[in-house]
Every structure is written in C-alpha cells, then in structure tokens.
Amino acid sequence: MRILIVGAGGVGTAAARIAARRPFFEHCVVADYVLERAVQAADATGDPRFVAARIDASDEDAVTALLREHGCDVMLNATDPRFVMPLFRAALSAGAHYIDMAMSLSRPHPEHPYEQTGVMLGDEQFALAAEWEKADRLALVGMGVEPGLSDVFARYAADNLFDTIEEIGIRDGANLTVEGHDFAPSFSIWTTIEECLNPPVVWERERGWFTTEPFSEPEVFDFPEGIGEVECVNVEHEEVLLIPRWVDAPRVTFKYGLGQEFIDVLRTLHKLGLDSTEKVRVGDVEVSPRDVVAACLPDPAGLGDRMRGKTCAGTWVKGVRDGAPREVYLYHVVDNEWSMAEYGSQAVVWQTALNPVVALELLAGGQWQGSGVLGPEALPAEPFLDLLKAYDAPWGLREQ
C-alpha cells in the first residue's frame, strides 16, 4: 500500500508516528501547505518509507497530481473540514481510495435552523456515492475516533450484544486539564466552533433527522477509568448522520462533555460574531474572525507536556437481549501521560489518529473491502476491534 497523508498538524503527525510501527505499507507521503511542518512529521518517524511534500489542500488538481506522482493507493485526509470536498474529489480523480475523520460541512436550514436540517454533514459526499461505486473505489468517511471508532462500536453492539436496539448515544468526556492556560482546547478550535455552535442533529425513526438548540438536553454521564461524572450536551456530529444508514436504531444522539466554562466561551464568541468564517476587513487585510480566534489560542498539538488526565470516547446502547433489557457502554480511554511518553502526541489527537491507521491496515490486508461512500458501521466490527489490541489500544465494555 502507498499512502498520502494530507495535513501534518497534530493528527496527521500522530498518524505517521503510529503507522511507522506497522509493516502493512511500503510508502507514505506526508503533505502540508507548510513544507517544514511536513518534513518534521516525516522525519520524526525515523522511517525511510516516509517522505514530505508541499501541497495546497484546496488545489484539487495539484492533489490529484501528487497522488499520481507517488502512485498512492489511498489518501488519508488529516485536514480540517473546509478541505474535505477538494480532497475527496481529487482522490476520486486519481483513482485512489479515501479516508477522512470529519465529513463535508453542513449549512443550517435558512428559516428553521433549530427544528429542521438544511444541508447535513456529509451530504455533498454522499451525493457522489454513485461515482465512487462506478470507479470501484472506497471513500471511508468519518473514520476517526468520533466519528469512527464510535461507529464501529455501534456496529459491534448491533451484531453481538442486542436482539433489538432502542437507542444509541455517543458520549464523549474527559478530565483533561492544561497547566498554564485558562482556556486551551485540546482539539482544533476551528472544528470545535463548527460542531458546537451549529444546530445539533438528532435521529428518530418516526421523524427522521431534525435539529435542536446548541447545548440542548444536558445530562450527567459517568465515564469510566476514573474520569467520573461529566455533564454532556447535544452537539452536531457525524455519527448521527451515519449510524442510522446502516444500523437499525429508533433514536441516535451525540453528546459531548464540554463543561459550563467552555460553553460560555463558545456562546460569547458567537454573540460577538467571532465564530464567523466570513472575512472582514481590518486595516489593509481581510481575515475571518474564526481564524483570528484560532491564531490567538495555543496549538493543541503542542499542549501535551502541559496536559494531565484522560479522554474517553464511547457508544452507549440501550435495547433488549434474550427478552431482558440491557444497557452497555463501549469505550476507549487514553491517558495523556501514556500517549506522550509512548508517541510524543497528546491524548486527544493520538486517539483520533489511531483509528484511520487501523482502517488503512484492514484495507491493505483485505479484511475491509467495499466501494462507494461508506461509514465505518457499514463494515464488520470484529476485525477492527481485534486489531486495536495489536496497536496497544484496548477497548472496554461496561454494563450500565
């Protein structure tokens, strides 16, 4: 297998470090708009299979040419969601498979944003599914940790743990702290603003997909391995758009443990218009307010030495097994101290990067196969969860 990783930020760099320990590929290009960053990510692996390149992720033709130049079989998109569609189309044009961790952007309903969906996450990608099928190529979308591993958990629960499912809820929480910073998100603030301030989507069989107010339906969820109780709220996320396509569930939700301070900051950014991606003129330059916010905050990839605690991603499932009610939580926890010592990557970005690398190995070995635009829950869960153990990344199951 020959791979192109586009994006040498925290997640792209972590993906390279994780993949370098595995033998399933022969060549990997790490490409970024800033060549120096790509070189650092490739060189840090100490593996001659890795090379660096400069690329503008918005330049579809250039990405297609880079894929062809290196004879890449597959592209891993490790950029933010703004670049999903040009990279998605470039992979198709080059005849390569494609994996991302976040799907094409949504646009709220113009008149009823907190009741009805507009353009949903992934709609632009699914609109091209027939072209991917015709090309006999696979676009595996939403293959990070959330979405990604959380969707694999949903598939596993449906196939192995329940006769019928009543509800699936993705629940994400952490007890991470960052020393020396009053406010320092552990993941891309650009993406965090996008998913947290957009109208959250909920799936119900009778209603289909519909939206609610941001941060709605708060609940306290008890996370495992010492993290404890965290208040979680509705957030827009890909699982709600993916799981109902392949798993029979009357209701699907995504709730994120943000914390009240984080919510208050996001609401303030929105109130001041600082979440906007539309450029405004400041003196002699034009810049989007959201990009300014991102530039003012520390790079999440560089926070690992100051972070303490654990992060948990998981899937809560309620239903019936052998005539009796059952609730389970399937989860994956990463301790930041461990991920920094073992890989030099902070817990959140390492956990996100792990899963597309596992998927790449399954594709290389033929355990996962398909064509078209598919989510992780469209493929068998057991090979993925078995392979996680080989990556020193065990998962857990707790009876609720």
Question: How does this model look, in words?
Answer:
- The chain is built from 14 helices and 20 strands.
- The radius of gyration is 20 Å and the shape is globular.
- Strands 7, 9, 10, 11, 12, 13, 17, 18 and 20 form a nine-stranded mixed sheet that branches. Strands 3-2-1-4-5-6-19 form a seven-stranded parallel sheet, with helices on both faces.
- With 400 residues, the chain is α/β, with parallel strands linked by helices.
- Strand 2, helix 2 (35-44) and strand 3 form a beta-alpha-beta unit.
- Helix 1 (10-19) packs across helix 13.
- The protein starts with a strand and ends with a strand.
| Residues in helix, % | 25-40%
Q: Describe the main β-sheet briefly.
A: 9 strands, mixed
Please work out how many helical segments DSSP would assign. 14
Q: How many individual β-strands? A: 20
Uncertain spans = none
The overall average pLDDT, rounded, is: 95
The general outline is: globular
Please give the oligomerization state of what you see: single chain
The end-to-end span amounts to 41 Å
Judged by helices, strands and strand pairing, the structural class is alpha/beta
Share of β-strand residues: 25-35%
- Radius of gyration, Cα only, in angstroms? 20 Å
